[in-house]
Amino acid sequence: MARVNKVNTNDERQVLTVPEAGRRFGLGRNAAYEAARTGQIPTLRFGKLKRVSVKVIDRMLDGGGLASNPNGGTARVVEK
Question: Given pLDDT bands bounded at 50, 70 and 90, which one contains residue 6?
Answer without folding.
Answer: low
